[in-house]
Amino acid sequence: MIVIFAFSSCEEKIEEVEQHAENTENHFHHKHQASTVRTPKFNKVVLGKKLNNPYSVKNMNIALQSLRQKNLRLIPIDFTIPVTHYYVKFFIESSEDFEILQRQGLELFSYPLDYEVENEIDYSLPTSQNSIGKWLYTSVPANFDFNAIQIEYVILEELYLTDDEDTTLDCNGQSGRSVGNYSLYETLEDASITISGIFPDSPPRDIVPPILPCEQIQRTKHRPRGFVRVWDSERGALVPVVGVRVRTRRWFKYGYDYTDENGFYEVDNTYRRDPRYSVIFRNQSGFKIWSSVFAMQRAEHNVGRHDKRGYDIDIQQNSRGWRFATVNNGAVKYAQYCQAMNIGTPDRKLRILATNGNGSSSAPMLSKTWGLIGFTTNSQLATFLLKANGISIRLNLISIFIRFVSPDVIIEANSSQGTAEVYGSTFHELAHASHFEKVGSRYWTKYINYIITYGSYGDGSGMNTGICALGEAWAYHMGYQLTLAEFRGVGGTIDNSEITLAGFEDFTPFDRPGVDINRPRRGGIIVSWEGWIPGGIMADLIDTNTDNYRVGFTDNAEGYTNEDIYNALDWGIESPQEFRDRLLRESSNRDRNNVINLFEGYFWN
């Protein structure tokens, strides 16, 4: 069983609630008429009690006085607690604000860092419909230039955070290294944690209290490492999640690394206590994944506090993070296939929205088309999202969607689909994004206007029908072909179905106006294709098979490659006929008569 998703179709369920049901079977289903339209529902971060911040200058001074009373020999007489950082919150009003702060090297959180966190969620609604923005929390160096960023901020507390090497003393309170060396900062940190009563962050088991003689103090630091893997329902195994960012955090101390091709990471910081672990779906290659139509930032998979030595993050199919990890891997695989076939890849900064629905996907390329002909008003965008994806957003909230998300690609992905279906949808939509790189924004707005005017694919009779037919033929071809290439032979649903590449060639062309692409099934398995969009024509150009795809017409065309096809998808090529002519011209009329006959058989002559 396999599904290939369209540039646009219908139902999109936007309920951002965690999925916990076990999935015992994959049902590959593709709808063309919206039966239900859902409006967004959101989870929010669940916070526990407010904690007494042990890293505040105030509490560090209390700890300093306590240590001086208990062991004056350990503390230099002239030592005072400096302000090294500020605990601060910024009011973020757009994704651009977020990017500005990230370029400053800041890590932003949607919840205050001095609270117990019971439920970490990476998004939430803005404070009100009349206030487009949200407070995000972080720490900044004391010399941070707030004026340079022009973003509203509030300093919440003065902090003392420093590198251990800056405060390494011997047992007489003098700087230097000896057998009895100790870290003044770590000693203060332990005392402040104890005094602050931070029971969830109790002193580590592998050190003794700082009030004991210097010679007895021993500390062990660890650099967390591990693997990030996701369940592949086709292979029936966990596979690496490639190129995602792993973040560790303990209060205001952060560590990072990107996973390699094996899913392995080792963060760039050390910990004496157990940190919190998160997977950030900002891929090392450049693309980012959003979780919701009102996400404040890229999607996260938060797994809570774990061992300071490291933690293997295994994302199962019933986890909320499964769709992000699976879409991420599909996007990585797509780029690899493009490189192997010498096909252009999408913009490296592509913005992907991975929704949790039961409907369809689309490629509006919104970060590049908003404000051009086609997407100039909130109502136009709302109409597109409703017709293309079944997403219903109130007009007064469209501006929030634009400021924070503006997706280039919307991929419907949920755990009931299975890996092959999500990959198929991802391959299909990214093929559109590759096409966009050839033709640009003004060409793409014609595509958008077609959907706004006629809804989904229409019946093939309206203005810009040829653009829709050509673009969908390319995306169906790539999505179907790459999904088969990825999963054939792994023993999953595709190997156990009747679907082969020849199945895609079993395409019954309809003349225009006609029905949308329809795939009759037997027991859920696709056995044939039909429609006015020439979904099988590019496979027929490449293969060496001979098949009778409609009465009086036989596929004898051959000898073309995916690279040839992509090269002919130029700006100004707005119909299958124009594509045919460009393809023949660029290939010195290779197999001309059979190619012309093929397009005639598909009713595009």
Q: How would you explain this protein's 3D organization?
A:
The relative contact order is 0.12. The model is unreliable at 1-42, 176-180 and 200-218 (pLDDT under 50). Strands 8, 9, 12 and 16 form a 4-stranded mixed beta sheet that branches. A 4-stranded antiparallel beta sheet has the order 11-10-13-15, with no helix packed on it. The longest helix is centred in the C-terminal third of the chain and has 23 residues, at 465-487. The chain is 29% helix and 17% strand. It has 15 helices and 24 strands. Strand 10 (245-250) and strand 11 form a beta hairpin. Among the domains are: 46-216, no CATH class; 498-605, no CATH class. By secondary structure, it is an alpha+beta fold. It has helices spanning 57-70, 95-103, 184-196, 322-341, 366-369, 378-389, 395-404, 419-439, 441-454, 465-487, 501-505, 537-542, 562-567, 576-586, 592-601, and strands at 46-50, 85-92, 115-119, 134-141, 153-159, 168-169, 182-183, 225-232, 237-240, 245-250, 253-258, 264-266, 276-280, 288-290, 300-305, 313-315, 351-355, 409-412, 507-509, 521-522, 525-526, 529-531, 548-550, 553-554.
